[in-house]
């Protein structure tokens, strides 16, 4: 076994054990931390595949941003410190997930499985590109693809525009969640009340027999 | 002179050859050399931490009209060692209800992430941990990952102040990552590579570069980068995460002894790393006139940047939380975005090499002219941004004064009517 293989097994084990702990641990904060460890394990596997940029992106996006978000959500949730926090329908969910897992494995199995008079699975697993092995994507094609996104002469403009779209969404979210002046809120409430009253009045005119007492109250 | 210039790499080669002659050329020897190099770099960082604490205490003391440490050794030079002994011998206390594994792991993880940055920083020609082709990105990724450790410390201590400090930290670190990344981007655009060595080469005259440090080309990026760098390391005036007068000491209030020392180490090693990255990106790293060896240039430049950071620490009051957020999202980020667009277009319009001109068109200019155009644009954006902020601040202040005057008049009228 080479050094690389030992490292692969080591990091693979760390990733899998951490992933299992995420599900098993009752303390939500610990589960979130194990999730981070699992992300790190995946990043290490990327490094072993010599995909350094991917590994750094994994650390930046998943460890640096998404897991922080998760931990924040966990911290602001009730009953984290040892409280009972479970879904009452977990048994049903477990049964459905189990059936789905068995079904998927059956569908993908290389050996045909006869179930209720029908054959499932039996897929012929072949290597794409025939007996010669996997089709080799030349490094140049991948490099060109990557350069296309950052080169100002190629697809940089659409790429940047899609980024601007996300920025617009963010600005919209900030606008929705903005802190408003109390007077503004009051004015809006008054307007809504006026609209409701107008609707009620219009309804009262079209259908005068409905609830005359209520109309009187207004 | 050559021997002096290549001192670090010569010594490194000698050690490597010694290990090879002892173990033979095999993967085991490579591994041993890599481990030794990692230990040496970490030791250098830790020594830098010691020097930095002494320098900071002396400089801030001078600013505050004090003497600073002067009892241990000449000029108090042995003070860091005395501090270390004190830290080692202190009682290591743990809160009763602390989340023990999380509480104990947090300082270790902080120290690990702080030291991990040094793997890609070039100290002299050929003296670099590893020349990753994504060096700049690696630095940012590692910096963002250390947020987790601070959250762990804040949560694991089971203390309200710790948790408040951790929350503040996350809001601050996640927010200030944005302008930091946005201002590394112009450097990467001009260099065409994310490797820190390529960035340095671009700023020298030897390997196809123009010999102009990027701080002249991208003054706005340099300013915003160092500001967000200070915020990322949680130094004053952005030390909200450990504001002593508000939340005691933030996320590390429950730590003592060596664990506290590890937090301290993490903070200072991070400060040193940010200064090193700033020097590499904007001041040309170890490059400089050949009257001094490369590592001496690096030390000098880092010393100047660190003195600047300490000057800020000694003179500026702490910002408020709302000021912190407004400053980031309403000032630094929009300005950086405009700067990126300006640099992208201008660096394509005004090209410096004939090859780039034949490939993409544009106007061929001398590198100095390009520097003046880019630098002038950056300064213009900076001045415009400052002007807008100053105008808005003035309007707000005048409005507040008017409200106060109206209220005072009303109170006077009420008082007069009561008589």
Global Rg of chain A: 29 Å
Q: Which band does the percent of strand residues of chain B land in?
A: under 5%
Average pLDDT for all residues of chain A? 77
Assembly annotation: heterodimer
Our count of helices of chain A gives: 8
Element-by-element helix/strand order of chain B: HHHHHEEHHHHHHHHHEHEH
Total beta-strand segments of chain A: 2
The secondary-structure class of chain B comes to mainly alpha
What string, H for helix and E for strand, traces the elements of chain A in order? Answer: HHHHEEHHHH
* Rounded Rg of chain B: 25 Å
Keywords:
heterodimer; A: mainly alpha; 8 helices; 2 strands; extended; B: 419 residues; mainly alpha; two-stranded antiparallel ribbon; two-stranded parallel ribbon; 16 helices; 4 strands; 73% helix
Q: What do these coordinates show?
A:
The complex is a heterodimer of chains A (218) and B (419). In chain A, 69% of the residues lie in helices and 4% in strands. Chain A has 218 residues and is mostly helical. The longest helix of chain A has 25 residues, at 182-206. Chain A is extended, with a radius of gyration of 29 Å. In chain B, strand 3, helix 15 (354-360) and strand 4 (363-364) form a beta-alpha-beta unit. The longest helix of chain B has 52 residues, at 367-418. In chain B, the strands form two sheets. A two-stranded antiparallel sheet of chain B has the order 1-2. In chain B, strands 3-4 form a two-stranded parallel ribbon. Chain A binds chain B through residues 3, 29-30, 33, 36, 52-53, 56-57, 59-60, 63-65, 67-68, 71-72, 75, 152-153, and chain B through 27, 99, 102, 132-134, 137-138, 140-142, 144-145, 147-148, 151-152, 155, 163, 170, 174, 177, 344, 348, 360.
Topology:
The complex is a heterodimer of chains A (218) and B (419).
Chain A: H1 3-24, H2 28-48, H3 52-75, H4 90-108, E1 112-115, E2 118-121, H5 139-150, H6 156-176, H7 182-206, H8 212-217
Antiparallel strand pairs in A: 1-2
Helix pairs in contact in A: 1-2, 2-3
Chain B: H1 2-5, H2 7-23, H3 27-63, H4 79-89, H5 100-116, E1 122-124, E2 127-128, H6 135-156, H7 160-191, H8 196-202, H9 214-217, H10 219-233, H11 244-247, H12 257-282, H13 294-315, H14 321-349, E3 350-351, H15 354-360, E4 363-364, H16 367-418
Parallel strand pairs in B: 3-4
Antiparallel strand pairs in B: 1-2
Helix pairs in contact in B: 2-3, 3-12, 3-13, 4-12, 5-6, 5-12, 6-7, 7-10, 7-14, 10-12, 10-14, 12-13, 14-16
């Amino acid at each position: 076994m080479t050094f690389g293989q030992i490292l692969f097994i080591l990091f693979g084990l760390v990733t899998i054990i951490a992933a299992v702990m995420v599900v098993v641990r009752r303390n939500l904060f610990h589960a979130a931390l194990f999730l981070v460890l699992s992300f790190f394990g995946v990043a290490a596997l990327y490094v072993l595949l010599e995909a350094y940029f991917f590994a750094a992106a994994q650390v930046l996006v998943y460890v640096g941003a998404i897991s922080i978000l998760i931990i924040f959500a966990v911290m602001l949730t009730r009953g984290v410190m040892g409280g009972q926090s479970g879904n009452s329908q977990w048994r049903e969910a477990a049964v459905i997930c189990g059936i789905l897992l068995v079904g998927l494995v059956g569908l993908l199995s290389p050996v045909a499985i006869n179930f209720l008079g029908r054959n499932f699975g039996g897929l012929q697993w072949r290597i794409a590109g025939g007996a010669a092995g996997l089709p080799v994507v030349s490094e140049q094609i991948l490099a060109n693809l990557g350069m296309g996104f950052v080169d100002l002469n190629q697809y940089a403009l659409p790429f940047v525009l899609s980024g601007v779209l996300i920025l617009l969404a963010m600005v919209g979210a900030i606008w929705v969640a903005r802190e408003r002046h109390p007077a503004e809120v009051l004015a809006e409430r008054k307007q809504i009340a006026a609209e409701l009253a107008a609707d009620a009045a219009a309804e009262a005119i079209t259908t005068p027999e409905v609830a005359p007492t209520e109309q009187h109250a207004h | 002179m050559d021997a002096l210039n290549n001192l670090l790499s010569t010594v490194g080669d000698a050690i490597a050859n010694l290990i090879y002659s002892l173990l033979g050329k095999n993967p085991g020897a490579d591994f041993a050399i890599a481990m030794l190099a990692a230990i040496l770099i970490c030791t250098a960082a830790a020594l830098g931490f010691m020097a930095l604490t002494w320098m900071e205490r002396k400089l801030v003391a001078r600013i505050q009209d004090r003497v600073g440490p002067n009892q241990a050794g000449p000029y108090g030079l042995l003070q860091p060692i005395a501090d270390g002994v004190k830290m080692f011998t202190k009682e290591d206390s743990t809160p009763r209800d602390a989340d023990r594994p999380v509480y104990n792991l947090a300082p270790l993880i902080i120290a690990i992430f702080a030291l991990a940055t040094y793997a890609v920083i070039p100290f002299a020609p050929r003296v670099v941990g590893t020349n990753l082709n994504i060096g700049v990105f690696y630095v940012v990724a590692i910096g963002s990952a250390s947020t987790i450790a601070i959250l762990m410390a804040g949560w694991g201590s089971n203390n309200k102040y710790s948790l408040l400090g951790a929350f503040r930290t996350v809001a601050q670190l996640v927010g200030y990552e944005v302008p930091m990344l946005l201002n590394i981007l112009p450097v990467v655009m001009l260099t065409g590579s994310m490797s820190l060595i390529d960035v340095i080469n671009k700023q020298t005259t030897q390997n196809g570069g123009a010999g102009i440090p990027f701080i002249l080309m991208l003054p706005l990026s340099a300013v915003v980068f160092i500001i967000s760098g200070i915020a990322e390391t949680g130094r004053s005036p952005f030390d909200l995460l450990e504001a002593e007068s508000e939340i005691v000491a933030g996320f590390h209030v429950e730590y003592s002894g060596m664990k506290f020392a590890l937090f301290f180490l993490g903070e200072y090693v991070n400060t040193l790393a940010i200064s090193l990255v700033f020097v590499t990106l904007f001041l040309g790293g170890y490059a400089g006139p050949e009257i001094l060896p490369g590592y001496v240039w690096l030390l000098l430049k880092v010393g100047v940047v660190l003195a600047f950071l300490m000057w800020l620490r000694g003179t500026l009051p702490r910002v408020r939380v709302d000021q912190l957020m407004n400053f980031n999202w309403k000032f630094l980020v929009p300005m950086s975005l405009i700067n990126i667009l300006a640099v992208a277009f201008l660096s394509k319009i005004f090209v410096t090499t004939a090859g780039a001109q034949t490939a993409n068109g544009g106007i061929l200019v001398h590198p100095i002219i390009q520097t003046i155009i880019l630098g002038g644009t950056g300064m213009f954006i900076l001045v415009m941004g400052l002007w807008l902020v100053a105008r808005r601040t003035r309007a707000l202040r005048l409005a507040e004064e008017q409200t106060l005057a109206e209220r005072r008049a009303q109170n006077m009228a009420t008082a007069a009517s009561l008589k």
